[in-house]
Automatic annotation (TrEMBL):
It holds the Pfam family Rieske. One of its GO terms (cellular component) is membrane. This is Nitrite reductase/ring-hydroxylating ferredoxin subunit. One of its GO terms (molecular function) is metal ion binding. The keyword Thylakoid does not apply. It comes from Lentzea atacamensis.
Length: 83
């Protein structure tokens, strides 16, 4: 799910397993285009087809040579907050 943040920023928040949440910068590290929401355990860039692991953001298939940048989040009651 894409979450809007202050200052026109966005985060891609995923739940790879029950009770586990991860957040990533949704810009593909290849050329900066916005990645698609997760599907089938992966996150895909629609521009050139890079594929990233939904749990870690690591590259599974290029042309990207680095993974999605993770943003630390933590649970605070029922909310997720930047850690």
């Amino acid at each position: 799910m894409l979450v809007d943040m202050p200052g026109n920023a966005q985060l891609l928040v995923v739940q790879p397993r029950s009770g586990e949440f991860r957040a990533f910068n949704p810009a593909c590290p290849h050329v900066g285009s916005l990645v698609n929401p997760p599907a089938g355990g992966v996150i895909t860039c629609p521009l050139h087809g890079s594929v990233f692991d939904v749990s870690s953001g690591a590259v599974r298939k290029g042309p990207a040579t680095s993974g999605l940048r993770e943003v630390a989040v933590a649970r605070s009651g029922e909310d997720l907050v930047l850690a």
